[in-house]
Design a protein that fits this description.
The structure holds two protein chains of two kinds. In chain A, 67% of the residues lie in helices and 5% in strands. Chain A is mostly helical. In chain A, a hairpin with a 5-residue loop joins β4 and β5. The C terminus of chain A is likely disordered. Helix content of chain B is 38%, strand content 26%. The radius of gyration of chain B is 26 Å and the shape is globular. The chains are: A mainly alpha, B alpha/beta. At the A-B interface, α12, α13 and α16 of A face α14, β16 and α15 of B.
Chain lengths: 458, 544
């Protein structure tokens, strides 16, 4: 009898498609000695190694969080034996790794590592007298005999968590060391970062199952869990929306700059029209339209998460389709410039076809612009998601996202005493993702931009 | 001219030294790699001292060090600059500010980028005047008119209210000189002041500088790579090579009896106008008949065509097999457009271009392909003529692939190797990128690229004007060798008459889209008929 039912969301497919093409891309580049040398330059720096490992960790989390399934419910007494009912709640492999974090709900807000709720409630003592006090949390520190032991227990449990992490890191890094001993790349930096991340993750998981490391939100959900679940949304939204936008912007921009004439007129007309419509309005209208479609066609969606997922993908597409104007304008200007350069003229003189001129002479020379836009837009899109959640057209509240967390933090921060941990959780994960992406892209740009190479040679 | 040079040299001996540079050393801040090594020279009042060298020899660094304007990456490690009895290096930054502009003025190569494009030229000079002197607004304006008259701007009171872009290149440079002279400096540092100008205008500006030096008793430090400029106006010469002054001499003595081999090489770059190429072929490879290329001028909201710029306005010429035709003219004369029209990169408005008898002027891309194999091109700039993201090997292979030469990958790579060695480069260079090469090497690669498809005609669009003189000679020599070896024909587009005798069998002089004179190189150069040809010829420096 089946015990699990695998659920494949569209976004799961897309994220694995992305990961596969990325792997293929890196595999392909092994064949090209020059590109390989440039990537070698990127990974030859300790910063490059470290930031790549951080990015890799994020991608890993996103991938693990994209293997969804539904567990079978236990048989009800009256149920036919051949009939299996599955839980409405979709879980992912990541949830298994995180343990009980997902299910340890409290009643409402609680501070990080707190044992008591953040708000007073009416309670009755043994004598039946009502009083108001902070109730004990249901799950945090439930294993403690005496709340006063919390300090020493935290230290002890931290050590256990770190020790677990240390062992894991040792095995993980040790295996790599065995295979990569002879390499000239600065693996030491990568291994250090890996060890730190593994230890930190092990500690988080171990402690996170005993306490609420980042407290709980209004509905009593663990904030750390929500932040980690937000990783997938953030990574996917950032990459998917940019990947939708890139081909439109690049192909239209280059076509406009290269062919000029009526092609240029049409493209310019398109993007001036697009950029004169307020972006938020356009996005809001499109998202609402799609939401209506989802609501009118419930038969397409078996479970709630599928609805949320459809809306999420729609949002990625809408963001991508509405935000290509800036990059397109850049591409057009740069192509106009490049197509006047002598090497393009020389290619014309050799009778090289338009397609080859665009792919071999123009595209590679605008790649650095694309790369920079990719990373800048990545962070901008993650932030845009927060703005959209604010006006209620962002990601479905059923889906964990940093934007939703930041949105709720708005009212939480205006309370006295302020509730700071929701924002901090989203901020920490978003910040480390965007920072390492920025640093890594700087290195990539330095390696691939011929002009920086020129300066280095001069 | 040489007589007057001699007399002012004699004068100069008695004149006061204005600027004395002694043992000036400059090094890279980080690594300490030396850029200038104990450079020393004197600049006297009323004389033009030319600092000559190729790019990278340190001549511009010397001038910046004198002005204390070195970039942060460089620092002075030794030596001194004396102005009168004061050391410039001992001044405070505030005192130095007084010296700059007031006593030592500078003019640069590109006048247009040195002038503020949104301010009237008069106002720019008035501003300098009012900051450094006690003149009032009206007085300053009057003074600017005087200055403009002095530098030979026509209608100076009207030119005052022009914006920089409304002036021609030569006029812009004159405004720059007027600005430099505004505060009555005693020393003028001119960094390649005429390199960006057309030859005929170049001569006028040089004459002006020389005249001003004499009249105002200015000490002029002239920085240039052009031996012709030196020959025309300098009194004394210092040859810079790899950060050192290797030879210093009076100008006549220098040209007649150079001490160093390198100096001799520089002098040899001056044209030899006595030897000409002979023999013209009577079998025409390319015939151009009444070619016209017009560009529409569009105006108004609807972008209606309001007129045409006649870039090429009815020219005819022909090139025989194994022959070189030099197409000479100043910028804007339509010579490059002619080349582009022959390559079918620019549609011809009217006229006929026949290659081996076939009309090729209005062919579609596909129909043109067979001719592309036979007509190739070499461009001016060695820096933008190659895709920075392709290796040399790929650049050379591109033509073979796209023109469908039936070659296997192995044959192609063999061919790349042989092409590279044919232009005297190492076959191993094929894995490198263009930016790893010097200007001269890149130009050889560009030649190899053109040769890759075995063309019969190569259009050379100013292939040497971006190169240093000594490298220029090598590239020209290579082109000549290839002509002897393979019998290719060249259409050699250039603004520089001086290289023509050495290179071209025939010569066509172009002005404002028309060919004003053409014939064998020897007959045109020794007996020019058209006044424009004569004007061009006069601006070419010669060794007597």
């Amino acid at each position: 009898m089946d015990t699990v039912k695998i659920v494949v969301l569209w976004s799961d497919l897309l994220i694995y498609l992305l990961a596969a093409s990325l792997t293929l891309f890196f595999w392909n580049m092994r064949g090209n000695p020059i590109t390989a040398a440039r990537w070698r330059q990127v990974f030859g720096t300790r910063l490059g190694m470290a930031t790549f490992v951080v990015l890799g960790a994020y991608i890993m989390i996103a991938l693990l969080d994209s293997l969804h399934f539904r567990l079978a419910l236990e048989e009800d007494p009256g149920q036919k034996s051949d009939q299996v009912y599955f839980d409405n709640q979709v879980v992912s492999v990541l949830d298994l790794a995180l343990g009980d974090m997902a299910t340890e709900h409290e009643r409402t807000y609680s501070a990080p590592f707190a044992l008591q709720s953040f708000e007073k409630v009416n309670m009755k003592n043994a004598d039946g007298v009502s009083y108001r006090d902070f109730p004990r949390l249901e799950h945090a520190g439930a294993h403690l005999a005496d709340p006063a032991d919390r300090g020493s227990d935290l230290v002890l449990q931290s050590l256990i968590g770190l020790a677990k992490g240390g062992v894991l890191a040792l095995i993980f890094v040790g295996m790599q060391w065995f295979f990569l001993r002879g390499s000239t790349l600065p693996w030491r930096a990568a291994w250090t970062t890996q060890a730190v991340i593994i230890c930190f993750a092990a500690w988080l998981i171990h402690i996170g199952n005993l306490y609420h490391v980042l407290g709980t939100d209004q509905a009593g959900n663990d904030v750390l869990y929500k932040s980690i679940k937000g990783v997938r949304t953030g990574v996917l939204l950032g990459t998917l929306a940019t990947l939708v936008m890139l081909p439109i912007a690049v192909s239209l921009g280059i076509a406009a700059g290269y062919f000029k004439g009526w092609v240029d007129d049409v493209v310019q007309y398109l993007y001036t029209t697009l950029s004169s419509i307020p972006g938020i309005l356009l996005i809001a209208a499109s998202v609402l339209l799609f939401q209506v479609y989802i609501d009118l066609n419930p038969e397409f969606f078996e479970i709630g998460l599928e609805k949320a997922d459809a809306r999420f993908i729609a949002l990625c597409f809408i963001l991508g389709v509405t935000s290509w104007a800036t990059l397109c304008r850049l591409m057009r200007a740069e192509t106009l410039k490049i197509s006047q350069l002598e090497y393009v003229q020389a290619a014309h003189a050799f009778g090289v076809s338009h397609f080859r001129i665009i792919t071999r002479h123009i595209l590679p020379n605008v790649v650095h612009i694309i790369l920079i836009t990719f990373v800048l837009d990545f962070s901008a899109l993650v932030l845009a998601e927060a703005v959209l959640s604010y006006i209620g057209v962002g990601i479905d509240p059923a889906m964990a996202s940093w934007g939703n967390m930041i949105n709720t933090a708005r009212s939480e921060l205006s309370r006295e005493p302020a509730i700071w941990w929701t924002l901090s959780g989203a901020f920490f994960f978003m910040f480390s993702l965007v920072l390492s992406a920025n640093l890594f892209s700087d290195l990539v740009r330095d390696a691939f931009d011929p002009r920086t190479g020129l300066e280095g040679a001069a | 001219m040489s007589e007057s040079a001699m007399s002012s040299v004699v004068d100069a001996e008695a004149r006061v030294t204005k600027l004395a540079v002694s043992d000036l050393s400059v090094a890279l801040t980080g690594s300490g790699a030396p850029i200038l090594k104990e450079v020393g020279f004197h600049l006297r009042a009323g004389e033009v001292y030319a600092l000559v060298g190729e790019s990278g020899s340190g001549k511009s660094i010397t001038s910046l060090a004198i002005m204390r304007l070195l970039p942060d990456a460089l620092q002075v490690t030794g030596g001194d600059v004396q102005y009168g009895d004061r050391s410039l290096f001992a001044l405070t930054e505030q005192e130095m500010q007084e010296y700059r502009g007031r006593r030592i003025a500078m003019i640069f190569q590109d006048a247009l980028t040195s002038l503020n494009p949104v301010q009237r030229v008069g106002a720019q000079i008035e501003e300098t005047l009012m900051r450094h002197t006690s003149l009032s607004g009206a007085e300053a304006r009057k003074r600017v008119v005087q200055l403009f008259e002095e530098v030979g701007l026509p209608e100076p009171d009207k030119r005052l209210d022009f914006f920089p872009h409304q002036l021609s290149g030569g006029q812009q440079q004159r405004v720059m000189i007027a600005m430099a002279l505004a505060c009555e400096p005693e020393v003028l540092v001119a960094d390649e002041p005429t390199t960006a100008l057309d030859v005929t205008i170049q001569l006028q500006v040089l004459d002006l500088i020389r005249e001003l030096a004499k009249k105002r008793d200015l000490g002029v430090l002239l920085i240039t790579h052009d031996m012709g400029v030196v020959r025309n106006i300098a009194h004394r010469v210092g040859v810079m090579y790899q950060g050192e002054i290797i030879e210093e001499a009076e100008v006549d003595q220098f040209f007649h009896n150079p001490q160093e081999a390198y100096s001799q090489k520089l002098i040899d770059s001056l044209p030899d106008m006595t030897h000409y190429m002979h023999g013209t072929a009577d079998d025409p490879l390319l015939e151009v008949k009444d070619l016209e290329v017009h560009f529409p001028i569009r105006r108004g909201v609807l972008q209606r065509i309001k007129g045409y710029t006649k870039a090429v306005d009815g020219i005819s010429f022909s090139i025989g097999r194994g022959e070189t035709l030099a197409l000479v003219g100043e910028s804007g004369s339509g010579k490059s457009t002619t080349g582009r029209a022959i390559l079918n990169l620019e549609p011809a408005t009217a006229g006929e271009i026949r290659f081996k008898g076939d009309a090729i002027q209005a062919l579609k891309r596909r129909e043109m392909l067979p001719y592309r194999k036979q007509i190739q091109v070499i461009f001016q700039s060695p820096f933008s003529s190659m895709n920075p993201r392709m290796t040399i090997g790929h650049i050379l292979e591109e033509g073979m692939v796209s023109l469908g030469l039936q070659l296997t990958a192995a044959e192609r790579s063999e061919r790349v190797a042989s092409l590279l060695s044919r232009v005297r480069l190492e076959p191993e260079f094929r894995h490198r990128y263009p930016h790893e090469f010097s200007g001269g090497q890149r130009q050889r690669i560009a030649i190899a690229r053109a040769l890759a498809v075995d063309p019969e005609l190569i259009i050379c669009d100013e292939p040497t004007s971006a190169l240093d003189v000594s490298i220029r000679a090598e590239v020209l020599e290579l082109l000549l060798d290839l002509q002897r070896e393979f019998g290719v024909s060249y259409l050699f587009i250039t603004h520089d008459l001086s290289i023509v005798p050495h290179l071209a069998h025939r010569l066509a002089v172009m002005q404002d889209g028309r060919i004003v004179e053409q014939g064998s190189a020897e007959s045109v150069l020794t007996d020019p008929q058209h006044p424009y040809t004569r004007a061009l010829l006069e601006s070419v420096p010669r060794i007597d």
